[in-house]
């Protein structure tokens, strides 16, 4: 096709010729020339190559347009359970932040894992990492997960963690201060409980370093300031609302003097459902993480007393901005930790 155009002496190639030579429509060439709408970088480059090959008089303008166009990068996000409203909200925030980038054109690729076992997460991490330029993940700390992160880093794919850190090196971390969160939850329960009693703790998994630190700090506050309360061994719900529901019912059944309950991880909807069903004889001061429809309603109904809320919009914007810097300028020598102030919501400010 290009030869047939260039072999016509005295004829000036037209935009139609460029379109035929590039294998695209005339409208696509027009969009590249006049910046009427976004065109994939690969397509624009093909249009330029065709224009230069046939001697199109506007090839110089096409090259300038191509130079002006932001670079396209794929950003991957590996989150936990798709059925969890919090992770759906986080997905929407990350997607919006990626599409709103100015310095480059970001394409979000969001995947969820319902099986949060280390082997599954590591396998999906490597699979997603092979298709993107940078990656942000929510994952429990485990040698298999850290090995997958190391493998991606060796291939030039930066990985940042969200919500909970990993013990291995990463390019950055974004979350809340779990030490302050745990102590805040303990302060709420010790102050709101009508009298000292038993206190229960439900965690997603102790391999989530954020959950572990929240629990450690929670217990530390009680040792220092409210020693008359008795803290039970924690129950792991694997971020599953069903297990959180069963664990909460069991705690209420076995401990008639249950004064407080803290859940620093996922499964909030299950805990709320169990507290509604149990109808304990005494009020159980309950604190959990994240505002979702179930926890918002529970605050208004008096089933929950406080919710520690992650600022997901700010977290998403800052995490995506760091990914953009990493994929454009290369990895930093050492990853940095960014702790955002959390919200504290009760029935009066919900």
Automatic annotation (TrEMBL):
<protein>
    <submittedName>
        <fullName>Transcriptional regulator, LacI family</fullName>
    </submittedName>
</protein>
<feature type="domain" description="HTH lacI-type">
    <location>
        <begin position="13"/>
        <end position="64"/>
    </location>
</feature>
<keyword id="KW-0238">DNA-binding</keyword>
<dbReference type="InterPro" id="IPR010982">
    <property type="entry name" value="Lambda_DNA-bd_dom_sf"/>
</dbReference>
<dbReference type="InterPro" id="IPR025997">
    <property type="entry name" value="SBP_2_dom"/>
</dbReference>
<dbReference type="InterPro" id="IPR000843">
    <property type="entry name" value="HTH_LacI"/>
</dbReference>
<dbReference type="GO" id="GO:0003700">
    <property type="term" value="F:DNA-binding transcription factor activity"/>
</dbReference>
<keyword id="KW-0804">Transcription</keyword>
<dbReference type="InterPro" id="IPR028082">
    <property type="entry name" value="Peripla_BP_I"/>
</dbReference>
<dbReference type="GO" id="GO:0000976">
    <property type="term" value="F:transcription cis-regulatory region binding"/>
</dbReference>
<dbReference type="Pfam" id="PF00356">
    <property type="entry name" value="LacI"/>
</dbReference>
<keyword id="KW-0805">Transcription regulation</keyword>
<dbReference type="Pfam" id="PF13407">
    <property type="entry name" value="Peripla_BP_4"/>
</dbReference>
């Amino acid at each position: 096709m290009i030869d047939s155009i260039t072999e016509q002496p005295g004829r000036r190639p037209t935009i139609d010729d460029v379109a035929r030579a590039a294998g695209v429509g005339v409208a696509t060439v027009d969009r590249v020339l006049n910046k009427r709408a976004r065109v994939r970088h690969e397509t624009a480059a093909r249009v330029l190559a065709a224009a230069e090959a046939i001697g199109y008089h506007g090839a110089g303008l096409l090259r300038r347009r191509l130079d002006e166009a932001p670079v396209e990068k794929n950003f991957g996000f590996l989150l936990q359970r798709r059925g969890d409203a919090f992770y759906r909200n986080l997905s929407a925030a990350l997607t919006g932040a990626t599409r709103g980038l100015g310095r480059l054109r970001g394409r979000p690729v969001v995947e969820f894992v319902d099986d949060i076992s280390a082997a599954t997460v590591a396998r999906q991490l490597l699979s997603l990492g092979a298709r993107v330029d940078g990656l942000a993940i929510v994952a429990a700390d485990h040698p298999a997960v850290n090995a997958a992160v190391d493998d991606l880093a060796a291939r030039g794919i930066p990985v940042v963690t969200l919500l909970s850190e990993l013990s291995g090196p990463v390019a950055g971390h974004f979350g809340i201060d779990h030490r302050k969160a745990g102590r805040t939850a303990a302060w709420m329960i010790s102050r709101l409980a009508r009298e000292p009693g038993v206190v229960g703790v439900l965690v997603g998994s102790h391999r989530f370093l954020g959950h572990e630190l929240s629990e450690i700090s929670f217990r530390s506050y009680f040792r220092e300031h409210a020693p008359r309360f008795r803290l039970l061994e924690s129950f792991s719900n694997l971020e599953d609302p069903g297990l959180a529901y069963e664990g909460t019912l069991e705690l209420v059944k076995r401990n008639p003097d249950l004064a407080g309950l803290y859940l620093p991880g996922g499964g909030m909807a299950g805990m709320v459902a169990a507290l509604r069903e149990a109808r304990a004889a005494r009020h159980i001061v309950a604190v959990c993480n994240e505002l979702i429809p179930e926890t918002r309603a529970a605050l208004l109904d008096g089933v929950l007393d406080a919710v520690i809320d992650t600022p997901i919009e700010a977290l998403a914007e800052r995490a995506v901005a760091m990914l953009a810097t990493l994929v454009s300028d290369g990895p930093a020598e050492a990853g940095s930790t960014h702790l955002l102030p959390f919200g504290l919501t009760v029935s009066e400010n919900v």
